[in-house]
Amino acid sequence: TAAVKISSILFAYRSAVLRPRIRTALTEAAQTARGAQVVTITGYTQTDLTSPISRRANLDLARRRAEKVRAYLRAHGVTARVVIIAKGAVNPISTQRQNLNRRVEISARY
User: Fold this and answer.
1) Backbone angles phi, psi at 61, to 5 degrees
2) How far apart are CA 24 and CA 7, in angstroms?
3) Whole-prediction pTM value?
4) Edge-to-edge strand order for the sheet containing 81-88?
């Protein structure tokens, strides 16, 4: 079966903190993801940092964001196998609004 995109969660600059607005969106995502066989969480970061050190830091931040989302989904009843993918600064949504690139995308296969 094809993956269904559940949610795209935006984070603050260089942060993996689950702020109240993020928690609200994740609670809704958890309700939708219940019953899925596989949930994929893909972490992205903004694209304005391009040095090799920044690439490593961006991958680490993307992974930390995805891991926080996984922990939240687990705590809210998602029992599916969870796959985490850290993409860092690839696949930007916008070059004008970097905040749109600081995201975690959640998809599920049922």
Assistant:
1) -65, -40
2) 12
3) 0.87
4) 4-10, 103-109, 38-44, 81-88
